[in-house]
Amino acid sequence: MAQSTRLVDLVHSRIDEFINTRESIVTTISPDLTVLVDFSRQFLSGGKRFRAQFAHLGWQSVPAPAEPHAAGPLAAGPGDAPGRTLGNPAGIVSVASALEVFHAAALVHDDIIDNSDTRRGAPSAHRRFESLHAAQGWAGSPGDFGRASAILLGDLLLGWSDELLDDGLDDAADRASARRARREFNLMRTEVTAGQYLDILEERAWLVQPEAELLDRAVRVIVYKSAKYSVQAPLVIGAALAGATDDQLDTLRAFGLPLGIAYQLRDDLLGVFGDAAVTGKPSGDDLREGKRTVLIALARERMDQPARQTVDRLLGRADLSADEISSLQQIIVDSGAVDRVETLIQQNVGQALAVLDGSDVAAGVGAELTEFAGTVTRRVF
Fold this sequence. Notes:
Layout: H1 2-29, H2 34-43, H3 50-60, H4 90-114, E1 118-119, E2 122-123, H5 125-136, H6 142-170, H7 175-205, H8 214-241, H9 246-273, H10 276-279, H11 285-289, H12 294-301, H13 305-314, H14 322-334, H15 337-356, H16 365-377
Antiparallel strand pairs: 1-2
């Protein structure tokens, strides 16, 4: 995965470069705005860059035109799998970077919605602004200031992601491909916002929904909040930028959706059982937030009435004790839901990999996609 490693390094550099150019604009307005730039840097400095890598793999998956490979930072080196290489790397690097900045914006807003204290083992954005308010001794509520400021930070990052995307599309050699990549990006934005709303809806509306519909509704949240946005859309955006045909895009959609579902199912397990040292979030955080995930829907199907009453009484309480979290975890395990989710993960990964058999993705990229499928779905507790 040498090219993906180089891509991640280039994305880091591109984001740093972009923020440096925006810092002068923001701080010219007022030095008080420096904190927006500083917090942006902090939130964009880490992470696995999965979306950037999927965009790059989508771009690589489109066989290159029959011409000599041009040299460039992402050109194939010794031992690299054959496939598309970049004569002008700015386009895909900027588009991949735009996806990472969009993701940071979504996380800032998501943490406000979920009232999360941490992100990647550090304070979430609204908690950082809250601490700033308290440290400076300003008037009013630190919590109100923190939430309002984080909303604005998320909005700023959303705007910056669009600017980065435009930079990448401007570098595309083919205008039709650039327009198609833009349409796919716009579709992703709409779908993930809709999925986010469905997520908060299910946390509250489950009480009046028919029991038989809860699993399907939880799957719908996974598809639109995470699966399309985390895996499928980045693959398709990258491929569209490379000039993919309809059939090539359909292949990536068919691969990306089940892999994205498997990715989120693993994340749901981590949200309930994950080690804080690994996930960067408190253990059992999804239980405190009241997430009505596929894991919970499957568990409810096989719980007896006393266990179901316990889950419904405790799930979503922000003040859950360690003993209460442990009790909920044991109820979920005893229901067999963890094993069922593990089976679903393997089934969806298998479905995704089956799409690659006999597909027309560029030589060598299928192997990278297969390896990456394991990387994003075998995360440990």
